[in-house]
Please model this.
Amino acid sequence: MAHHHDHTDIDWAEMGPLLESQAELFTPLYERALAWLAKEVTEPGLIVDAGSGPGVVSCLFAETFPGARVVAVDGSGPLLERARARAARQGAADRFDTLAGELPAVLDELDYPADLLWASRSLHHLGDQRAGLAAFAARLAPGGTLALMEGGLPARFLPRDLGFGRPGLQARMDALEEEWFTRMRAGLPGHVAETEDWPALLGAAGLTHTRTRSFLLDLPAPATDRARSYVAASLSRLRDGFADDLDAEDRAALDRLLDPDDEASVHRRPDVFVLAAHTVHTAVRAD
Model:
């Protein structure tokens, strides 16, 4: 997920277009993850997307499981408006609902327990992740599955040596993002430090039959216009958010990469790609 780095309060409505375009770009990865889930999960009646954002993946669930009702849950009303509009465009509005409120408490407002609860990079925005997982597990029907997308690998867009500046720019940006993520977590209400052993945490929440699998997004060079736009938007947010943490050489390199008139920019250079991996952990509530 692309993050807002100038402070740890994230304006999700402002990020709506970026979140939507990123999820659309990552659709091949999500489709593979959902195809795997479809083999793991008995045909669900109710699917809950906890932390749905603009609903791109929620609508993929509606497509993958045509007999299911899907509820997109998020704390941002503007993002849920995007989700409802997408479901309507795809002809799934009659079995698509939204629920606005803060996780995990808002899940208590669900009319029915979930057969499949999907939480894609939403748990890490809860201060107490262990309590959050217990709350997710409590909303599962007997035999229901919790699917947690957390972890994976940082995205790569560019070769290690750009032909200018100091090689390894993206690795240095990764280190800054890790530090930002730690500060973001520490600033959350009720923050509890936790070893990120997700299968163990799922087991501690009373769930069984844990499984883990990672899924790759591999969009090789030359990048499409959509991929270039995503890369440019991602690097622009990093440039704005980390301006004070970068040395002059790295700031200059990012400025070149983001200058549409520069042949070496991500808008024009032929070697731009997108390579990323996301990891899904699943577990089941006993009958």
